[in-house]
Automatic annotation (TrEMBL):
Gene3D superfamilies: Single-stranded right-handed beta-helix, Pectin lyase-like. This is endo-polygalacturonase. GO terms for cellular component: extracellular region. Its main location: secreted. Keywords: Cell wall biogenesis/degradation, Disulfide bond, Glycoprotein, Glycosidase, Hydrolase, Repeat, Secreted, Signal. It catalyses: (1,4-alpha-D-galacturonosyl)n+m + H2O = (1,4-alpha-D-galacturonosyl)n + (1,4-alpha-D-galacturonosyl)m. Belongs to the glycosyl hydrolase 28 family. It comes from Chrysomela tremula. InterPro entries: Glyco_hydro_28, Glycosyl_hydrlase_28, PbH1, Pectin_lyas_fold, Pectin_lyase_fold/virulence.
Length: 376
């Protein structure tokens, strides 16, 4: 058992403890974390990881390859600090994944300046995503944590989805997700960047994402802020509901996207509910200070006819208090619209929009519900 001085333990508890909520936490960078104590355990191979995770609270993973078909399991002790150095790469295997699975309570995970988590998606992409072709790992970075900060994480070439989050009181800051290679021959599909579900008190901030599906997607969660996130090539800053046949698993409440941008994407803001799912309520969602650039379908799409897009929306999900404030940008292409709203009968109430302006559309807005403050 490694023993730490009282001062070191106290400082780490302050930095990594139970305060990783929407406000009031203090985060640290890689160099600061590394210098807090000399008692880090270094794993320089996949085989070393299980014993080190079991016996150490302060861990550095350094530059190794995970064998084909194996998950890098990081079941961290309470109050652990985990640092990434060098490149963590995953040998190719046609399986479900995940590639990394992190669990724990009140933890901190930080990437070094030159580290990289490489999913090797270029060996899987076949233009069919998760719905066909070769079997692809569904998650590169899977998180099931209560209380934690994840900071400055670099991820490249996810086979399909990149980051899946389940948990509470979590902050994700400084993520750099790079799937630029996936645009070659349009082979990368279903590469959702950051998705969280069944979660509460989540912050995603100060991040850059290049991918080919939803940039950030919120499912069955509450009390979250997504801020200063910048996306390219994505499918939208997204809210999803109706994915479950169970009514209790469809609610979304108190979500804010602010100071974000999205460009070169299929949609800018994408709000989708699934008619085949159970009942639920989406309440108090705000998009504030959103810049949309060169979107190729709809600048803003709120649809209750997903995924058929057939103009026959359902009212199984109620959408209340949808607020858009200072949402501006451009669309381009012959089939584009600035705004499309397809609400089920009586299912959309109390929407307030202000300073919403999307230009460049070749088709008129298509709205069967009219928000206060916006004419379409």
């Amino acid at each position: 058992m490694i023993h730490f001085s009282k001062s070191v333990v106290t400082l780490l508890m302050v930095l990594v403890g139970t305060s990783a909520t929407l406000v009031g936490y203090e985060s640290i960078d890689y160099a600061t974390a590394l210098n807090l104590t000399a008692d880090y355990c270094y794993a320089r191979s996949y085989e070393e990881v299980p014993s080190i995770v079991q016996r150490c609270e302060y861990i550095v993973l350094v530059d190794f390859e995970v064998p084909a078909g194996e998950t890098l399991e990081l079941n961290l002790q309470k109050n652990s600090v985990l640092l990434f150095e060098g490149t963590i790469k995953f040998a190719v295997a046609y399986w479900d994944g995940p590639l990394i699975h992190i669990t724990g309570n009140n933890i901190q995970v930080i990437g070094g300046t030159k580290h990289l988590i490489h999913g090797q998606g270029e060996f899987y992409w076949d233009g069919q995503g998760g719905s066909g072709g070769v079997k692809k790992p569904e998650k590169v970075f899977s998180v099931n944590v209560n209380g934690g900060i994840f900071k400055n994480i670099n991820i490249k070439n996810c086979p399909t989805a990149c980051v899946k989050i389940y948990g509470n009181d979590l902050t994700f800051s400084g993520f750099n997700i790079d799937l630029n290679d996936g645009f070659k021959n349009k082979l990368a599909k279903h590469t959702d960047a950051m998705t969280f579900s069944h979660s509460n008190n989540i912050v995603i901030e100060n991040s850059k994402i290049v991918n080919q599906d939803d940039c950030v997607n919120v499912i069955c969660s509450s009390n979250a802020v997504i801020r200063n996130v910048h996306c390219w090539g994505s499918h939208g800053l997204t809210i999803s509901s109706g994915l479950s046949t169970s009514d209790r698993n469809n609610d979304v409440q108190n979500i804010t996207y602010e100071d974000c941008s999205i460009g070169g994407s299929l949609s800018g803001i994408h709000f989708k509910t699934h008619p085949a799912g159970g009942h639920g309520t989406v309440d108090q969602v705000t998009y504030r200070n959103i810049e949309i650039k060169d979107v190729t379908r709809h600048g803003i799409e709120i649809q209750q006819d997903y995924p058929n897009n057939d103009g026959h929306p359902s009212n199984n999900i109620k959408i209340n208090n949808l607020n858009l404030i200072n949402v501006t940008g451009t669309v381009k292409g012959k089939t584009t619209r600035g705004v499309r709203i397809s609400c089920g009968s009586g299912s959309c109430t109390n929407w307030k929009w202000s300073d919403v302006k999307i230009t460049g559309a070749h088709k008129k807005d298509d709205c069967n519900f009219h928000p206060d403050g916006y004419s379409c």
